[in-house]
From TrEMBL:
GO MF annotations in UniProt: quercetin 3-O-glucosyltransferase activity; quercetin 7-O-glucosyltransferase activity
Class of this enzyme: transferase
UniProt keyword annotations, A-Z: Glycosyltransferase, Transferase
Taxonomic superkingdom: Eukaryota
Enzyme Commission number, as recorded: 2.4.1.-
Family per similarity comment: Belongs to the UDP-glycosyltransferase family.
Protein name according to UniProt: Glycosyltransferase
Pfam families: UDPGT
SUPFAM superfamilies to which the protein is assigned, alphabetical: UDP-Glycosyltransferase/glycogen phosphorylase (SSF53756)
């Protein structure tokens, strides 16, 4: 039987019945009290706790599993927690690193020491960046990963270097697994490969997983029926993911721009998303801005079944934070994007959407109603954006089909793990 180990806080939020029955659910504490918000504002505190309390509990868990009846043959560890690979290998358990972000952002993180050497630190400016190989022609300082939500001019956050050093630890793993496809990120993959023992590009994974996968948020399926009442490509879908937080002023600018675009919109507004504003107040503001006709012009939900929403014929564009999962889901469905990245890898993902793949528009570091209105209108009405998005979707479907590049890498990965298992059993 396979097992998934997660922090106890998250496992409590996922219904076990929604996960595949072959998976045993295991947990380790993250070291924070139950009432801790675990929000983006406390990522540093959470990271420090994970590297102390959680890493010790993880070591104890592996020791107990190693001495159990069923042999522990290998570990596939979250690439953002390098201690998971280090501890497993130290205990003689082969470990693979699974990074859930894009290959382009992974390469950027690997390049952080060089960026520091060149004094090319992230901040909102259009200065060209020379320190990330293969991206010299289009990458700007504003596109670099940020350890904080909004970078200040000339101020380097040392947490970014710490994070980059941790990501580089993937080179110690038996292999690096990335949720991407060679057709999307071939150049970045080719530059990453020499620094890893092996690389497997097996995405987009959401196209192959079972439908019954747990979510940390309760999805509002009623929004699908609301979409049914709208015409083809007539609705803007808005979601800034599970971590982004915005000010009330930013919320007001987004809302005014969406209303001014004159398109209907479905907006995911988490209860903790807009600072110092209740969910009820947000809904009232949206209803008032939409002329009292929130039911027809606008729909607000706390969380949406995003895959089904993006597949819906009524959705014409996706205003997104450009998190990698959201970027892949939109790419697979051929939906043009408007990107407003919040932090971390989202910055570089949005640049690739706007300047490399050209399947959407990059709106980073700007939040005013006129820009929101303009970019939404272009994304909804541009035949060129829609055509490129549909072409990428068609290619990604070929990648995950039988004999496609991602499908072939999955088969190669299965064989790789079987070899590790055979060697482990012989040891």
């Amino acid at each position: 039987m396979d097992a998934v180990a997660h922090v106890l806080h998250n496992l409590r939020r996922v219904a076990a019945a929604s996960l595949p029955p072959r998976l045993a659910l295991l947990s380790v504490p993250d070291g924070l009290p139950d009432d801790h918000p675990r929000s983006v504002r406390s990522l540093r505190e959470l990271s420090e706790s994970m590297f102390t309390t959680a890493s010790a509990a993880y070591r104890a868990l592996l020791l107990s599993l190693r001495s159990g009846a069923a042999p522990l043959t290998c570990v596939v560890a979250d690439g953002i927690m390098p201690f998971a690979v280090d501890i497993a290998e130290e205990l003689g358990i082969p470990a693979l690193s699974f990074r859930t972000a894009s290959a382009c952002s992974f390469l950027a993180y690997l390049s952080v020491p060089r960026l520091v050497e060149l004094h090319e630190v992230p901040f909102p400016a259009d200065d060209p960046v020379r320190g990330v190989p293969g991206m010299e022609g289009f990458l700007r300082r504003r596109d670099l990963p940020r350890a904080v939500a909004r970078a200040e001019d000339g101020v380097f956050d040392p947490m970014l270097l710490t994070h980059a050093e941790g990501i580089a630890q993937a080179g110690k793993a038996r292999a690096l697994i990335l949720n991407t496809a060679a057709s999307m990120e071939g150049p970045a993959l080719s530059r990453i490969a020499p620094r890893m023992r092996d690389v497997f590009a097996i995405g987009p994974l959401h196209t192959t997983r079972s439908a019954g996968v747990g979510s940390l948020w309760r999805e509002d399926d009623g929004c699908l029926a609301w979409l049914d009442g709208h015409g083809d490509r007539s609705v803007v879908y808005v979601s800034l993911g599970s971590l982004a937080v915005i000010s009330h002023e930013q919320f007001a600018e987004f809302l005014s721009g969406l209303v001014a675009s004159r398109y209907a919109f479905l907006w995911v507004l988490r209860p903790d998303m807009v600072q110092a504003t209740s969910a009820a107040a947000l809904q009232e503001a949206v209803e008032a801005a939409a002329g009292g006709d929130r039911r027809g012009r606008a729909r607000v939900v706390e969380w949406a079944p995003q895959g089904a929403v993006l597949r819906h014929r009524a959705v014409g564009c996706f205003l997104t934070h450009a998190g990698w999962n959201s970027t892949l889901e939109a790419a697979v469905e051929g939906v043009p994007m408007v990107c407003w990245p919040f932090f971390a890898d989202q910055q570089i993902n949005s640049r690739f959407v706007g300047a490399v793949w050209r399947t959407g528009l990059d709106m980073k570091d700007v939040c005013d109603r006129a820009t929101v209105e303009r970019t939404v209108r272009v994304a909804m009405e541009s035949g060129e954006l829609k055509g490129r998005a549909e072409a990428m979707a068609q290619q990604l479907r070929l990648d995950v089909a039988e004999s496609g590049s991602s499908s072939s890498d999955i088969e190669r990965l299965v064989g790789f793990i079987k070899e590790l298992s055979a060697m482990s059993c012989q040891a």
